[in-house]
Protein backbone atom coordinates (compact mmCIF):
# COMPACT_ATOMS: atom_id res chain seq x y z
CA UNK A 1 0.00 0.00 0.00
CA UNK A 2 1.46 3.35 -1.07
CA UNK A 3 0.86 6.61 0.78
CA UNK A 4 3.18 9.15 -0.84
CA UNK A 5 5.11 9.92 -4.03
CA UNK A 6 8.61 11.36 -3.90
CA UNK A 7 9.64 11.15 -7.58
CA UNK A 8 7.42 10.37 -10.58
CA UNK A 9 8.35 10.36 -14.29
CA UNK A 10 11.40 12.56 -13.82
CA UNK A 11 9.68 15.04 -11.47
CA UNK A 12 11.26 15.43 -8.03
CA UNK A 13 8.41 15.89 -5.54
CA UNK A 14 10.30 16.04 -2.23
CA UNK A 15 9.74 19.76 -1.80
CA UNK A 16 6.28 19.78 -3.35
CA UNK A 17 3.27 20.17 -1.05
CA UNK A 18 1.38 17.04 -0.07
CA UNK A 19 -1.53 18.07 -2.31
CA UNK A 20 0.73 17.84 -5.38
CA UNK A 21 2.37 14.59 -4.25
CA UNK A 22 -1.06 13.03 -3.66
CA UNK A 23 -2.17 14.14 -7.13
CA UNK A 24 0.91 12.49 -8.66
CA UNK A 25 0.35 9.32 -6.67
CA UNK A 26 -3.27 9.10 -7.79
CA UNK A 27 -2.20 9.43 -11.43
CA UNK A 28 0.54 6.81 -11.15
CA UNK A 29 -0.96 4.10 -8.90
CA UNK A 30 -4.34 2.28 -8.96
CA UNK A 31 -6.65 3.08 -6.04
CA UNK A 32 -6.47 -0.53 -4.79
CA UNK A 33 -2.77 0.00 -4.05
CA UNK A 34 -3.15 3.33 -2.23
CA UNK A 35 -3.77 3.91 1.46
CA UNK A 36 -7.35 5.21 1.85
CA UNK A 37 -7.42 8.97 2.47
CA UNK A 38 -9.91 11.80 2.43
CA UNK A 39 -9.56 15.59 2.29
CA UNK A 40 -11.93 17.15 4.80
CA UNK A 41 -13.05 20.62 5.81
CA UNK A 42 -14.81 19.75 9.04
CA UNK A 43 -15.00 17.45 12.03
CA UNK A 44 -17.78 15.10 10.92
CA UNK A 45 -16.19 13.77 7.69
CA UNK A 46 -12.91 13.42 9.57
CA UNK A 47 -14.65 11.43 12.30
CA UNK A 48 -16.38 9.21 9.73
CA UNK A 49 -13.02 8.38 8.13
CA UNK A 50 -11.48 7.76 11.55
CA UNK A 51 -14.35 5.45 12.57
CA UNK A 52 -14.01 3.51 9.31
CA UNK A 53 -10.28 3.03 9.93
CA UNK A 54 -10.89 1.74 13.45
CA UNK A 55 -13.67 -0.58 12.21
CA UNK A 56 -11.22 -1.98 9.65
CA UNK A 57 -8.85 -2.93 12.47
CA UNK A 58 -6.32 -0.10 12.21
CA UNK A 59 -4.86 1.71 15.23
CA UNK A 60 -6.02 5.11 13.99
CA UNK A 61 -5.32 7.66 11.27
CA UNK A 62 -2.64 10.18 10.37
CA UNK A 63 -3.76 13.78 9.87
CA UNK A 64 -1.51 15.62 7.38
CA UNK A 65 -1.05 19.21 6.28
CA UNK A 66 -1.79 19.50 2.54
CA UNK A 67 0.78 22.31 2.21
CA UNK A 68 3.66 20.47 3.89
CA UNK A 69 6.70 19.19 1.93
CA UNK A 70 8.00 15.67 2.53
CA UNK A 71 10.16 15.47 5.68
CA UNK A 72 12.30 12.34 5.58
CA UNK A 73 12.98 10.56 8.85
CA UNK A 74 11.01 12.89 11.12
CA UNK A 75 7.42 13.66 11.94
CA UNK A 76 7.74 17.42 12.21
CA UNK A 77 4.64 19.59 12.41
CA UNK A 78 3.14 18.42 9.13
CA UNK A 79 1.36 15.36 10.44
CA UNK A 80 -0.14 13.95 13.59
CA UNK A 81 -1.18 10.44 14.62
CA UNK A 82 -4.72 10.22 15.98
CA UNK A 83 -5.74 7.10 17.92
CA UNK A 84 -8.80 6.30 19.99
CA UNK A 85 -8.39 7.04 23.68
CA UNK A 86 -9.86 4.59 26.16
CA UNK A 87 -10.00 5.17 29.91
CA UNK A 88 -10.39 2.85 32.88
CA UNK A 89 -10.40 3.36 36.63
CA UNK A 90 -7.78 0.97 37.99
CA UNK A 91 -6.22 0.20 41.36
CA UNK A 92 -2.57 0.76 42.26
CA UNK A 93 -1.09 -2.55 43.44
CA UNK A 94 2.55 -1.49 43.80
CA UNK A 95 5.05 1.12 42.64
CA UNK A 96 8.75 1.20 41.83
CA UNK A 97 11.29 3.74 43.04
CA UNK A 98 12.25 6.14 40.28
CA UNK A 99 15.72 7.01 39.07
CA UNK A 100 17.35 10.06 37.51
CA UNK A 101 15.21 13.14 38.14
CA UNK A 102 12.59 10.90 39.79
CA UNK A 103 14.98 9.47 42.36
CA UNK A 104 13.37 9.46 45.80
CA UNK A 105 9.83 9.20 44.43
CA UNK A 106 7.67 6.16 43.82
CA UNK A 107 7.08 6.39 40.09
CA UNK A 108 6.30 3.29 37.99
CA UNK A 109 2.79 2.18 39.00
CA UNK A 110 1.58 -1.43 38.88
CA UNK A 111 -2.04 -1.30 37.71
CA UNK A 112 -4.80 -3.79 38.42
CA UNK A 113 -8.44 -4.35 37.55
CA UNK A 114 -10.90 -6.07 39.86
CA UNK A 115 -11.06 -9.82 39.29
CA UNK A 116 -14.49 -10.74 37.93
CA UNK A 117 -14.85 -13.55 40.51
CA UNK A 118 -14.25 -11.15 43.41
CA UNK A 119 -10.93 -12.77 44.35
CA UNK A 120 -8.89 -9.58 44.30
CA UNK A 121 -7.13 -7.72 41.50
CA UNK A 122 -5.55 -8.71 38.20
CA UNK A 123 -2.44 -6.84 37.08
CA UNK A 124 -2.61 -5.27 33.61
CA UNK A 125 0.77 -3.58 33.36
CA UNK A 126 2.78 -0.61 34.55
CA UNK A 127 3.09 3.08 33.75
CA UNK A 128 5.13 6.10 34.82
CA UNK A 129 3.69 8.43 32.17
CA UNK A 130 1.49 11.44 32.83
CA UNK A 131 2.83 12.11 36.33
CA UNK A 132 3.69 15.66 37.34
CA UNK A 133 6.17 16.43 40.12
CA UNK A 134 3.27 17.32 42.39
CA UNK A 135 1.55 14.00 41.68
CA UNK A 136 4.78 12.07 42.22
CA UNK A 137 5.27 13.69 45.63
CA UNK A 138 1.65 13.10 46.63
CA UNK A 139 1.51 9.48 45.48
CA UNK A 140 4.82 8.64 47.16
CA UNK A 141 3.42 9.81 50.49
CA UNK A 142 0.11 8.03 49.96
CA UNK A 143 1.64 4.76 48.78
CA UNK A 144 4.20 4.57 51.59
CA UNK A 145 1.34 4.99 54.05
CA UNK A 146 -0.21 1.85 52.49
CA UNK A 147 3.00 -0.19 52.20
CA UNK A 148 2.73 -3.91 52.98
CA UNK A 149 5.96 -5.32 51.48
CA UNK A 150 9.16 -4.40 49.63
CA UNK A 151 10.91 -6.47 46.99
CA UNK A 152 13.98 -4.79 45.51
CA UNK A 153 12.86 -1.45 44.08
CA UNK A 154 9.18 -2.37 44.28
CA UNK A 155 6.90 -1.29 47.11
CA UNK A 156 3.70 -3.35 47.35
CA UNK A 157 0.71 -1.55 48.85
CA UNK A 158 -2.80 -2.16 50.04
CA UNK A 159 -5.04 -1.94 46.95
CA UNK A 160 -6.92 1.21 47.90
CA UNK A 161 -5.93 4.06 45.56
CA UNK A 162 -7.94 4.34 42.32
CA UNK A 163 -6.35 6.04 39.33
CA UNK A 164 -7.91 6.97 35.99
CA UNK A 165 -5.74 5.59 33.19
CA UNK A 166 -5.86 6.53 29.50
CA UNK A 167 -4.54 4.03 26.97
CA UNK A 168 -4.58 3.33 23.24
CA UNK A 169 -5.79 -0.25 23.34
CA UNK A 170 -5.57 -3.67 24.93
CA UNK A 171 -3.22 -6.33 23.59
CA UNK A 172 -2.82 -10.03 24.28
CA UNK A 173 0.03 -10.62 26.73
CA UNK A 174 1.16 -13.87 28.40
CA UNK A 175 3.18 -11.74 30.82
CA UNK A 176 0.21 -10.90 33.03
CA UNK A 177 -2.30 -13.25 34.69
CA UNK A 178 -5.30 -11.73 32.89
CA UNK A 179 -3.72 -12.55 29.53
CA UNK A 180 -3.91 -8.91 28.38
CA UNK A 181 -2.00 -5.66 28.85
CA UNK A 182 -2.71 -1.98 28.23
CA UNK A 183 -0.97 -0.22 25.33
CA UNK A 184 0.63 3.17 26.00
CA UNK A 185 -0.99 3.62 29.41
CA UNK A 186 -0.71 7.03 31.11
CA UNK A 187 -2.12 8.59 34.27
CA UNK A 188 -4.91 11.15 33.93
CA UNK A 189 -5.79 11.66 37.61
CA UNK A 190 -6.35 9.94 40.92
CA UNK A 191 -10.00 9.22 41.74
CA UNK A 192 -10.49 10.17 45.38
CA UNK A 193 -14.23 9.88 44.74
CA UNK A 194 -13.98 6.12 44.14
CA UNK A 195 -13.08 3.14 46.27
CA UNK A 196 -11.23 0.09 44.99
CA UNK A 197 -14.52 -1.81 45.00
CA UNK A 198 -15.81 0.68 42.41
CA UNK A 199 -12.85 0.31 40.04
CA UNK A 200 -13.31 -1.31 36.64
CA UNK A 201 -13.13 -5.09 36.48
CA UNK A 202 -11.32 -7.44 34.11
CA UNK A 203 -14.52 -7.98 32.11
CA UNK A 204 -14.47 -4.29 31.09
CA UNK A 205 -10.87 -4.64 29.92
CA UNK A 206 -11.60 -7.82 27.95
CA UNK A 207 -14.57 -6.13 26.30
CA UNK A 208 -12.25 -3.42 24.92
CA UNK A 209 -9.82 -6.12 23.78
CA UNK A 210 -12.61 -7.96 21.98
CA UNK A 211 -13.61 -4.80 20.08
Features:
211 residues, 7-stranded antiparallel β-sheet, two-stranded antiparallel ribbon, elongated, alpha+beta, 21% helix
Structure description:
This protein is of the alpha+beta class. It is 21% helix and 32% strand. The chain contains four helices and 13 strands. Strands 5, 6, 7, 8, 9, 10 and 13 form a seven-stranded antiparallel β-sheet that branches. A hairpin with a 7-residue loop joins strand 11 and strand 12 (180-183). The longest helix is centred in the N-terminal third of the chain and has 13 residues, at 43-55. The chain starts with 6 loop residues before the first strand and ends with a helix.
Percent range for helical residues? 10-25%
Mean pLDDT: 93
Number of strand elements? 13
Cα separation of the termini: 25 Å
Radius of gyration: 22 Å
- Summarize the biggest pleated sheet: 7 strands, antiparallel
Q: Pick out the low-confidence regions.
A: none
Strand content: 25-35%
Tally of helical runs: 4
Shape: elongated
Q: Give helix and strand order, one letter per element, not per position.
A: EEHHEEEEEHEEEEEEH
Amino acid sequence: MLFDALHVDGEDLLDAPLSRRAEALDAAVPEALRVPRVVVDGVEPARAHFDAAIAAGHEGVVVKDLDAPYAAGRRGKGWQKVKPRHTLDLVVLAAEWGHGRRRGWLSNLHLGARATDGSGFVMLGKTFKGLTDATLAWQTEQLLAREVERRGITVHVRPELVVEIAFDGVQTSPRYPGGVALRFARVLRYRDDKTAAEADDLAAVLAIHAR
